[in-house]
């Protein structure tokens, strides 16, 4: 079964809850066709069928329940996960899900991780590229990484949409065009330079959008890390190949080829970024892989890699 690891679903009730907690950026997720109404689901499934996609792994990113207030974070995380559990139970052939965690409250996040994976049956967790300014390599988050590593589970990383923390992006209408892939790049490099994949070898990390600019930067990083990050224990390119990358590239064949040549086709998993690639753009997210890679590589990316990383059989 062809599995799309980068797909979203939000209910108005969840987005309204985030708004009530002070979130001011939920408009981007509203009215996109990624809701939970019967009509939206029917349209989604018909589109997926037209693209040959049988199964999607849902994540609420970038609207993760990351709040400074503990009660807000917990309440939003439980709502998100309960909605996803309902969606998966109603459509088990169509959906699986990554859990949302009430970060940066690590004790609460560990409790919700246990509930989501053991009771609700989720495949792993989804986080944004930073958690209220904390990098994913911050020691604060180490207990969460350690628990996912113990379980051999998945950490799916998605941009936060905060312009990589720079007003040069945020104030100049580039939050998603430029900011999102920059956030992917920065988060991946944080984890690489901190040896996160080596320190947690059973943790399966999936980065969004081909890792941003990472395919173009790894040789530079290999050449320069010894004087800029001398405590890093291995070549950044070697650490990068310990992670996985979804194929969201907006159908850009040179980018897909660069990622496959840099990481190996075995490290790429199909992603569409539904609903932001919709209609012909979503279908192109699938067909571009065949245009970019040789038949063996394309077959692995489209039909095998995600199932292996996620532990899903072909009859997911």
TrEMBL record:
The keyword Glycosyltransferase is assigned to this record: no
Domain Amidohydrolase-related: 3-312
Keywords: Lyase
Molecular-function GO terms, alphabetical: carboxy-lyase activity; hydrolase activity
GO cellular component, one term: cytoplasm
Pfam family, one: Amidohydro_2
Organism: Actinorhabdospora filicis
Source taxon at top rank: Bacteria
tRNA processing is among the record's keywords: no
GO terms, biological process: secondary metabolic process
Protein name per its UniProtKB record: Amidohydrolase
InterPro entries for this protein: ACMSD, Amidohydro-rel, Metal_Hydrolase
